[in-house]
Amino acid sequence: PAGAAAAPLPEEDCMKLNPSFVGIALSSLLAIDLWASKRLGVCAGEGSAWGSARPLMKVIEVSGHGIPWLLGTFYGLCQSDSSAAREVLLNLLFALLLDLVMVAVVKGLVKRPRPTHNKMDMFVTISVDKYSFPSGHATRAALVCRFVLRHLVLAVPLRVLVVLWALIVSISRVMLGRHNMTDVLFGLLLGYALYGVVEHCWLSPATAPALFTLW
Fold first, then answer.
1. Which of 20, 43, 125, 139 could lock 54 by a disulfide, CB 3.0 to 4.6 Å apart?
2. What's the pLDDT band for 16 if we cut at 50, 70, 90?
3. SS3 for 9?
4. Residue 125, Cα to own-chain centre: how many angstroms?
């Protein structure tokens, strides 16, 4: 009837008109992430601010790629004549495979596209690599770094170099425009956590005798 008070909005419509603080905060953080990542993508192309350093960044990219690490670990495993070394290398191989699977699963679930300023010229990619979250290089760098520091006896300068390598590989992902900062940060956290899984499931002649009979 005319002059009657307007009916109250349904609760779900009120929620849409009054977004939560958490939603606003997440949207703001996402916007900051995209803005800062684009500003830091100084090697994203030859015409970028640091475009001349792009070839060096791509060499660093290859150093953190999964294929060289898998091939190198498998070759070392086949060539090793020490039972202790074979145990370490077999677990490193397990860690690298676990890393590839977990990153692929998360990327497939999240399906976050690569930054718009990324030039898709990466070394040996698969279909899931069109997605950005998380950074597989950052995950691998953190995982390998923890593994090496724990299981290899290295002098202090070499230990520092291993940590620096992991940090440089991770930073290069944003500089090359491959990833946003949150992709890299989550990748580092995931790699750190995956190492704990590897330690918990450590393969040894006692726990996995069938695997050790192959070598």
1. 43
2. low
3. coil
4. 14
Please name the amino acid found at residue 91: N
Asked if residue 15 is part of any domain, the answer here is: no
Q: Which of 65, 117, 151, 179 is catalytic?
A: 179
CA angle 113, 104, 115 (to 5 degrees): 20
Residue given tokens 């030039």 in the structure block: 119
Q: Which residues pair with 113 in a beta bridge?
A: 131
Asked about 137 being catalytic, the answer comes back as: yes
* Domain assignment of residue 10, yes or no: no
Q: Is 179 annotated as catalytic?
A: yes
* Inside any domain, residue 148: yes
pLDDT tens readout for residues 154-201: 999 999 999 999 999 999 999 999 999 999 999 999 999 999 999 999
Q: Which of 117, 137, 151, 200 is catalytic?
A: 137
What's the Cα-to-Cα distance from 104 to each of 23, 56, 93, 129, 201, rounded to whole Å?
27, 26, 17, 8, 21
Local structure of 114: helix, strand or coil: coil
- Percent of the chain's residues with pLDDT above 90: 66
Selection from 136, 119, 154, 102 nearest residue 46 by Cα: 119
CA dihedral of 138, 142, 144, 147, whole degrees rounded to 10: -170
Q: Do you find a cis peptide bond into 10, omega within 30 degrees of 0?
A: no
**Structural domain of 92:** 21-214
Number of structural domains the chain divides into:
1
